[in-house]
Amino acid sequence: MLADFVSTNRDAIIAGTRERVASRAAPKPSEAELLNGIPIFLDQLGEALVRAQTSASTDHEQLSLSAARHGRDLLRMGLSIGQVVHDYGDVCQTVTSLAVAQNVPISTEDFKVLNLCLDDAIAEAVTEFSRSREGTIADAEQERLGTLAHELRNLLNAAMLAFELIKTGRVAVSGSTGQVLDRNLLGLRDLVDRSLADVRLDAGIEHRELIAVAELVEEIEIGASLQAKVQGLSLEVSSVDRTVWVEGDRQIIAAAVANLLQNAFKFTHKRTVVALRVRATADRVLFEIEDECGGLPPGKPEDLFRSFAQRGSDHSGLGLGLSICRKAAQASAGLLHVRDLPGKGCVFTLDLPRKPPPPLLVVGGASGSGGPIAPRSGGAPNLGLLSRG
């Protein structure tokens, strides 16, 4: 019987299935899937086959309960729905291939039971997986909305109190109370910009276009300079070659660079320098933001890019900035990484593909009127500025 064959050849079936999964192009297998997921798949299948063997008909209710439990286990292991479906198929193919290789006859009835078990198991595991995942997403979304509302209220209350004091005429707009108002209004603007970028990324809303990096940096510098001044910091921005272009959603890329600057402003030491430098190679454009925070805290640098992760002792803000930057980089076919400068600071780098500039425009906008517009003058390519590390 097929149930006995599965039980006797359990180790061989697990090894064969792992080999199939490991060679799969998509969805990519995970370590948890190879080490733990496959044995769970096979054990569930074995249980279903035994129940079918000892009863006149397949016990759909018990199989559904087992599959639902399995779906929850898969979610905790971090597997995707694609992995769930493909792994069931890989187990089935390995069982049949091994039976053929060993000349073990499988009756039509056994095949019917096997396919029925797999059909029920996939349906229930995927259903429970989806249900559990939606619950997890809903919980995370509630946490994010609650944190956002709390942060907005704090910034708005502080700005309103400062404004009320200024209205009395007892404090000067240019004094410390005015700085409090400036700081909190800037915080509100940044929080709204960051939230809008996050919504666009999650919804997959993109408007891709060719972007002149020099112009983008000039726009970002305006708001960043004001924020640096309010916080008593110095901002250094490198000149950018006017021939350097990238492609992507302008708002999303601008939000990513702005978030990296805000992160640097938040953690750099008082009265220090934050630098925004752009390095361009033949095929890449690197936006590098260097601060003087003293170096990264202990732990894995990758952990900094998780949602709600916050480094250092300052836990103000949502902890979403670097997570949004990582999503923005991925949406723009780029990378985001960090380099530690122990005892000094760190450098966050947004690494995007370089694109050739668009054809020269015509002066006046009408065909045949005037000559081509020459690129505006700018600095030379800023290469090799960060050679440390």
Written account of the structure:
- With 389 residues, the chain is an alpha+beta fold.
- It has helices spanning 2-8, 10-22, 31-53, 60-77, 81-101, 108-167, 176-203, 213-230, 250-267, 321-331; strands spanning 208-212, 234-237, 245-249, 273-280, 284-290, 335-341, 345-353.
- It folds into 2 domains: 2-138, Orthogonal Bundle (Globin-like), CATH 1.10.490.70; 206-353, Heat Shock Protein 90.
- It is built from 10 helices and 7 strands.
- The strands form 2 sheets. Strands 2-4-5-7-6 form a 5-stranded mixed sheet.
- Strand 6 (335-341) and strand 7 (345-353) form a beta hairpin.
- Helix 2 (10-22) packs across helix 5 (81-101), helix 3 (31-53) crosses helix 6 and helix 4 (60-77) packs across helix 6.
- The longest helix is centred in the middle third of the chain and has 60 residues, at 108-167.
- The protein starts with a helix and ends in a 36-residue tail after the last strand.
